[in-house]
Design goal:
heterodimer; A: alpha/beta; Aconitase, domain 4; 7-stranded mixed β-sheet; 7 helices; 29% helix; 19% strand; B: alpha/beta; 5-stranded parallel β-sheet; binds iron/sulfur cluster
Chain lengths: 160, 435
């Protein structure tokens, strides 16, 4: 699992109301949700995002509501991976459950700028900065790795 | 002390009992069978779709499933109506599940305690972040996502990481106008919006023992606003009395658990709330708190009194106390949303509606409505709202350039009367001066 792409930078405490405002939650259609991704954090984001890009954010990304619509809208918008200094608990859980790759890495903040290229290698636990410098990231706990390797919580449950 | 000999926090005790093990250690992962799983009109349709997609035909424990369409109801548009229809049809397809509509429905986290669905010691998941509300009754309750709910439908199970606990001890006698809402805002201001991420907050101390169950529900409700996994209070006689009044729980049989004396807390936060005045959270995060006095004089356009945080009868009584015999300031819209049908009827029978209507407020049917910017009172660009809800994020109640100030019902009502942010005391003192 290697993700390489252009970086979009977001700040601290980006909440799920900014990721996908509640006014669009009268549907669960991923394609519709993707159209409004990040609308209240950065208007116009969904219209311009390059597929395969990487989102980099500060602390407490995804705080607020439990809406799985938030990671789904990010995944469907074409973002390949989200790296943040820290994630809010339910967002983290939902991302694992639906198979959106996420990386917790406090050391990344301020080391990469908007528009630069980043490479994230989840297997080796390494992030390659634009300078070529490599930051190592701790592996996921075994239990979560098992969920992800089965393709999400439901397949984990049903695969026995 | 070694991890395997020390005592357990209240959260650890409940999880150990559910796991049927001697003890649990923070950081461990466990798969457990929750006693209750909740979904609403936003999160359940996704869970139902995933349940079917995974080949599900029968819900494992239908009697443990609660489906509460409360966010966009009464259905605000065709898409919302379609979402609720999915819940309704699922409830028919899965007999035994609990589905609430029309004259039965209410804001989920006000409804479930009211009907006696929640007891101390229960393990509860809900596809809604404010599921943590039920910790007020001594349950372990936490918000999850739709996939978790689908897994619960399918197998009756959910996964948990055992959280470390933070003990928040409240001491002293606050100002008489300070409520549970003010205490929780004060705590969030101290902890920050991520200060309790992944953690359990255990509320205790003499100031907590003095609180009503309703005020505790308000506090547990907002544990998530500090990032917590759950908020919990040890059940006491007040909880027992509260449950006696509920239809399903007229004779609840439960063991009252308490934390061990030698339980290990990752952090103990002591708060001296002696004389603490009412608090308010300024835009755009619940951690931006200060005393209401410090924010006094800011002009506002709208006041919302309701939600799972503060839409219960005690909240409406407090608001009515302030509004009685007064008029809402010209140019301010004041929307009151009783959280459930029972609260609605109580408020009506007690004459509170007359007070509100005489003052010039609008009374909405029970719904989440404006709390999440759904309907029933959306803000335009540049508008300011004082709200008794729990989140003041950018765009939460409408336009991304609108502003939300979070406060108690008494502060919200006082503000509605003057048109600028005002302490309850100020309005009551004026009353005396003029009489
Ligand atoms: S009242 Fe607001 S916070 Fe509570 S469940 Fe409804 S939308 Fe969520």
């Amino acid at each position: 699992m290697i993700y390489q792409g252009r970086v979009y930078i977001f700040g601290n405490d980006i909440n799920t109301d900014e990721i996908i405002p509640a006014r669009y939650l009268n549907t669960s259609d991923p394609k519709v949700l993707a159209k409004y991704c990040m609308e209240d954090a950065r208007p116009g984001f969904a219209q311009n995002v390059e597929p395969g890009s990487i989102m980099v954010a500060g602390n407490n990304f995804g705080c607020g509501s439990s809406r799985e619509h938030a990671p789904i809208s990010i995944k469907e918008s074409g973002i390949a991976c989200v790296a943040a200094a820290s994630f809010a608990r339910i967002f983290f859980r939902n991302a694992v459950n639906i198979g959106l790759p996420i990386v917790e890495c406090p050391a990344l903040v301020n080391r990469v700028k908007e528009g630069e290229e980043l490479q994230i290698n989840l297997e080796e636990g390494a992030i390659t900065l634009p300078s070529g410098e490599i930051i190592t990231i701790p592996p996921f706990p075994a239990f979560m790795q098992a969920i992800i390797s089965k393709g999400g919580w439901l397949s984990y449950l049903t695969s026995g | 002390m070694a991890e395997n000999t020390r005592g357990m926090t209240l959260t650890e005790k409940i999880l150990a009992a559910k796991a049927e093990v001697e003890r649990v250690i923070p950081g461990d992962f466990v798969e457990l069978e929750p006693d209750l799983g909740l979904g609403n009109d936003i999160t359940a349709p996704m869970a139902i779709a995933e349940f079917h997609k995974a080949g599900g035909t029968r819900v494992k424990y239908p009697e443990r499933v609660y489906l509460v369409p409360d966010h966009f109801t009464p259905n605000k548009d065709i898409l919302s109506a379609e979402q609720v229809k999915i819940l309704r049809e699922f409830a028919v397809e899965q007999p035994g599940t609990h589905f609430f509509e029309q004259g039965e429905v209410g804001v989920e986290h006000a409804l479930l305690p009211e009907i006696g669905a929640v007891h101390p010691g229960m393990l509860i998941i809900g596809a809604d972040s404010h599921t943590c509300t039920y910790g007020a009754l001594g349950a372990f309750a936490t918000g999850v996502g739709s996939t978790d709910l689908a897994g619960f439908f399918l197998t009756g199970k959910a996964w948990f990481k055992i959280p470390a606990s933070i003990k928040a001890v409240f001491k002293g006698k606050p100002d008489p106008w300070t409520t549970g809402k003010d205490l929780i805002l004060y705590l969030i201001g101290k902890l920050s919006v991520s200060g309790a991420t992944y953690k359990a907050i255990e509320f205790s101390g003499p100031a907590i023992d003095d609180l009503s169950v309703e005020s505790r529900l308000t506090m547990a409700n907002m544990a998530i606003e500090a990032g917590a996994k759950n908020g919990i209070f040890a059940a006491d006689q007040k909880v027992k009395d509260f449950l006696k009044d509920t239809p399903a729980g007229s004779n609840p049989d439960f063991e009252i658990l308490r934390a061990d004396e030698d339980a290990h807390y990752e952090r103990v936060v002591e708060l001296d709330v002696g004389g603490l005045p009412p608090q308010i959270a300024l835009p755009n995060l619940p951690e931006n708190t200060c005393s209401v006095e410090e924010a006094e004089g800011i002009p506002i356009d709208q006041v919302v009194i309701g939600s799972c945080t503060n839409g219960r009868i005690e909240d409406l009584r407090e608001s009515a106390k302030i509004m009685k015999g007064k008029k809402i300031s010209k140019g301010v819209r004041c929307i009151i949303l009783p959280a459930t049908v029972k609260v609605y009827r109580q408020a009506m029978d007690e004459g509170l509606f007359t007070i509100f209507l005489d003052a010039g407020a609008i009374i909405s049917p029970p719904t989440c409505g404006p709390c999440l910017g759904g309907h029933m009172g959306i803000l335009a660009a540049g508008e300011r709202c004082v709200s008794t809800t729990n989140r003041n994020f950018v765009g939460r109640m409408g336009h991304r350039e609108s502003e939300i100030y979070l406060a108690s019902p008494a502060t919200a009502a006082a503000t509605a009367v003057t048109g600028t942010i005002t302490t309850p005391r100020e309005v009551m003192d004026r009353n005396e001066r003029s009489s």
